[in-house]
Every structure is written in C-alpha cells, then in structure tokens.
C-alpha cells in the first residue's frame, strides 16, 4: 500500500519550530499587555491593524494574489472572527485571572477538539483514537486545573478556566474553516493573513466604538516591547507557520505544536508569574501530553503495522 502520509521536509520542520517558539512566549506577552492601562481590545486593534498593513505590503512586493474570489469573501470574515479576533478577545481576558502558562496548556487541547469538530461537521464517524485522546485529555485537564481552583490561600476563579476553554474551542473551529477554505479556494498564505488580520482589526474597532473606549497608548518599554512581539512573532510569524502547516500536513497534524509550546509557556510562567507545580499539576500535564501524543503514535506505529 502506498504511504499517503505527508513527508516532513525541512521547511515543515522549520515552520513547526517557529510556531512553537513564537507561541511559547506569546502567552506571557499577552499578560504584559493586560497589565497596562490600555484596554485589551485597543491593544488588539493596534496589533492586527499593523499586522494587516505589513502583510498587504508583503503581498504587494511578492506579487501575491490580492483579489478575492466570491467564495473567499464569505469565508475569510468567519476565519478572522475565530482566529484573529474572538479567540484573542477571550484569551486576553482569561489572562486577567489565571497564569498565562495555564491558558497555553488548556489551549493545547485544540489538537483533540479540532478533530472532534471535524468529525461532527463533516459527518464522519468518530475514530477510537479521538475517543481515547478525549478521555485522557479531559481527565488530565481536571487534574491540572483542580489545584488552582481549591487553593486555600489564593483560589483562582473558575471563569478564567471557562474563558481559556472557550478560546480553545473557537480557535479549533477556526482551523476547521481554514482547512476547508484551503480545499475549496487554495487562498495564498499571505493573502489569507492579510485579509483576516484586517477583518480582525475591523471587528475590534467596532467593539471599541460601541464600548466607548479611548484610543490610549502606553509608551513604556514593557508595553511597546510586548506589542512588537505580538505583531511580528505571535501574529505574522506564528500564523504564517500555522497556516503553512495546515496547508501542507492538515489541521490535526499542524496542532502537534501543542506538544511543545505549553511546556515553554509554563516554564515562563514559573519564572515570571510565580506559577507553582504540584503532584496533581504534573499528573494532569502528563495525561494531557499523553492525550496529545496518542494520535501521533497511533499514526506512526499502529497504522504502519497495518500496512
């Protein structure tokens, strides 16, 4: 039988590493912006406005197609809503109450939820590997968040975990939309990011106007530095890497980055946010890693024996 699995060339590996590093540190960068006097939505408007402008320039100089097809006009606004606005809106507010590393770990479960959403919306029978991954992931998540909820000295409000979980679900659905759009239209990578970031900025602008927020700015080194990181690394670099991986190896395999960046994010949290590990945390994290790894080892070893 011919092996239909995609080959992992050097560019795919570089995209994988770039994605892990970019998002590994992005969670703490979000926390730094939340701690500034600038409203989160205003910061996000600055972020995606600049990202959009830069990406349109990249498209112009690389002569990438900018004219959208009719179907793309109906798809990209929804992708932008899920992956360039609503997920960040929820995520920024989650960082107000829980450590950024915790959000990264919960967000990593998008590997499983992406498959669940794909199975449900495409009306495919749910595979046993997803059921097993879901069970391990759910148990691991319960173990991981419980210590923070029952901490007698400083319990964390459950709403923070609800925000993080919703962020993960919205992002998973966005990845499903990206994969479907790639099948239908093969929209150029730079074009997708240019328009989606523009739509994302527009959504935040509308929210700012409705909420009556002021367009303030924080000139501190911390705020400016975190904004620059969010623009160039957490947005441009990360989304180029992510969408390239989705196009080359599929949304599910692209999410294998979730095996790496949460560990980086938790390490950063332990140094800068005084996040403390305990037995339940570690057990939960290991179970989540097992859940995320199950699909990889299933494809690598079990299916290879069937061939």
Shape: globular
Question: Helices and strands, in N-to-C order?
Answer: HHHHHHHHHHHH
Number of helices: 12
Distance between the termini: 6 Å
Mean pLDDT: 86
Share of β-strand residues: under 5%
Tally of strands: 0
Low-confidence stretches: 1-6
Give me the oligomer status.
single chain
Structural class: mainly alpha
The domain count comes to 1
Rg, please?
19 Å
List the helices and strands and how they pair.
Layout: H1 10-34, H2 40-61, H3 70-94, H4 100-108, H5 110-121, H6 128-150, H7 158-184, H8 189-211, H9 221-249, H10 251-254, H11 261-272, H12 279-306
Helix pairs in contact: 1-4, 1-9, 1-11, 2-3, 2-8, 2-9, 3-7, 3-8, 4-7, 4-11, 5-6, 5-7, 6-12
Q: Can you characterise this structure?
A:
Helices cover 78% and strands 0% of the residues. It is mainly α. It has one domain. Helix 2 runs antiparallel to helix 3. The termini are close together. The N terminus is likely disordered.
Summary of the model, kept short:
The chain is mainly α and 307 residues long. Helices cover 78% and strands 0% of the residues. The chain has 12 helices and no strands.
What descriptors fit this protein?
single chain, 307 residues, mainly alpha, 12 helices, 78% helix, globular, disordered N terminus
């Amino acid at each position: 039988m011919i092996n239909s699995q995609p080959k992992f060339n050097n560019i795919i590996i570089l995209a994988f590493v770039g994605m892990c590093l970019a998002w590994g540190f992005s969670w703490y960068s979000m926390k730094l912006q939340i701690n500034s006097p600038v409203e989160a939505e205003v910061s996000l408007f600055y972020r995606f406005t600049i990202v959009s402008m830069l990406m349109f320039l990249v498209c112009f100089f690389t002569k990438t197609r900018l004219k959208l097809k009719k179907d793309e006009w109906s798809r990209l606004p929804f992708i932008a809503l899920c992956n360039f606005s609503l997920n960040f809106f929820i995520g920024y507010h989650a960082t107000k109450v829980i450590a950024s590393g915790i959000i990264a770990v919960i967000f990593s479960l998008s590997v499983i939820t992406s498959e669940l959403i794909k199975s449900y919306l495409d009306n495919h029978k749910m595979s046993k590997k997803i059921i097993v991954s879901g069970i391990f992931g759910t148990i691991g998540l319960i173990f991981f968040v419980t210590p923070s909820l029952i901490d007698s000295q400083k319990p964390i409000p459950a709403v923070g975990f609800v925000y993080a979980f919703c962020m993960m679900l919205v992002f998973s659905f966005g990845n499903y939309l990206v994969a479907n759009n790639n099948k239908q239209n093969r929209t150029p990578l730079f074009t997708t990011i240019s328009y989606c970031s523009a739509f994302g900025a527009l959504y935040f602008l509308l929210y700012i106007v409705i909420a009556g927020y002021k367009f303030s700015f924080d000139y501190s080194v911390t705020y400016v530095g975190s904004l620059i990181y969010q623009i160039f690394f957490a947005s441009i670099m990360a989304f180029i890497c992510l969408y390239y991986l989705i196009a080359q190896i599929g949304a599910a395999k692209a999410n294998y980055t979730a095996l790496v960046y949460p560990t980086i994010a938790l390490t950063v949290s332990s140094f800068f946010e005084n996040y403390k590990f305990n037995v339940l945390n570690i057990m939960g994290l290991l179970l989540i890693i097992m859940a995320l790894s199950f699909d990889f080892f299933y494809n690598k070893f079990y299916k290879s024996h069937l061939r």
